[in-house]
Every structure is written in C-alpha cells, then in structure tokens.
Amino acid sequence: MRIALYQPDIPQNTGTILRMAACFGLPVDIIEPCGFALSDARMRRAGMDYIDHVDWSRHNSWERFLEQRTSGRLVLLTTKADAFLQDFNFKADDTLLFGQESAGVPEEVHNRADARISIPMQSGLRSLNLAVSASIAAWEALRQTGFNQGIPAHPNGGQA
Fold first, then answer.
1. 1: nearest Cα among 28, 19, 20
2. Average pLDDT over residues 150-156
C-alpha cells in the first residue's frame, strides 16, 4: 500500500500526510510540481520529526511517476467517483492517489486511474481536507488488507 500526492498545493497538508504515513508504515510518492518547495518549513513543522521516519519519493512529473511504478492499482480518491470507499475492495499493493487541494487531477490522470472512489459525506458540501481524506482512506484500505505492520493488535500490546 502506498500514498501518492499529485501536485499538492498546501505544505501543511503534505507534512500531515507524511506524518500519518510514518505512523502507518506507508511509503509516499509526491508528484511535482508542488505549490511549495518540498523543503518548506511549514511542511516540516506539520510533519514534525516524523518526516525522518517515512519512506517518501519525489517524482518531477506525472509521466516520471508512471515510469517508476512497478505494480498494483492506482486508486484515485475523487468527488467524480464510481464507488464509495466502504464498498471498494482494496488490495495490499494499491496506490491511493490524491489530487491537488485546489483542482483535483486533470482528466488524463483521472482516466489513468484503475479505480475512482469517494468518501461519503453530507450532500451540499464540496470536500474534506486532503490530509483528513488521506487518513480516512488509508485506514480503511489498511483495515481491509490486514493492517499489522508492527503495530500491536490491541492498545495494551496485545492484551485483551
């Protein structure tokens, strides 16, 4: 399981997603150009010291990202979805793809996705924050695929 961020705009969201990914043991792909410098202090502050504990890669373009992918499906989180998050069957080698906060993804990227899903929410509202969406989707995908990457099965270290 991986997270991919397509041209993120907001450094604090990217930092928060990197922090979440470190905690869940998920690698992250950042597809440039970003709306900020990847060394941005706001991103590092949002990710705190967790950024040093996450496996993340930067790709200078969408095409380069596609060239470097080796396996699995691209699962796009979008408001233009075919299915809801809870109805989708995730696989352990899926890449969860998230678009720009300001614009989502272009049609080319949307069409390249193997699946398009959305997180259900109240009608009349536009969308959730990117970092919130990434966290919700990552947790559901990991829950479905047997999340056990070194984290205790129970908060007491496995004690019921």
1. 28
2. 55
DSSP 8-state code for residue 58: E
pTM of the complete model = 0.89
pLDDT of 158 higher than 60: no
In order of 21, 63, 88, 110, 113, the CA distances from 136 in angstroms are 12, 27, 13, 20, 19
Q: pLDDT (tens digit, 9 = 90+) per residue, 36-88?
A: 888 767 767 766 778 888 999 999 999 999 999 988 999 999 988 989 999 99
Q: For residue 142, what pLDDT is reported? A: 94
CATH 3.40.50.720 for domain 2-144: no
Of 155, 140, 138, which Cα lies nearest the Cα of 25?
Answer: 138
The conformation of residue 33, written as its DSSP 8-state character, comes to P
Contact 56, 20 (CB under 8 A): no
CA distance readout (Å), 18 to 2, 45, 84, 120 = 11, 11, 24, 24
Q: What is d(CA 140, CA 142) in angstroms, rounded to the nearest whole number?
A: 5
In the prediction, which pLDDT does 108 show?
Answer: 96
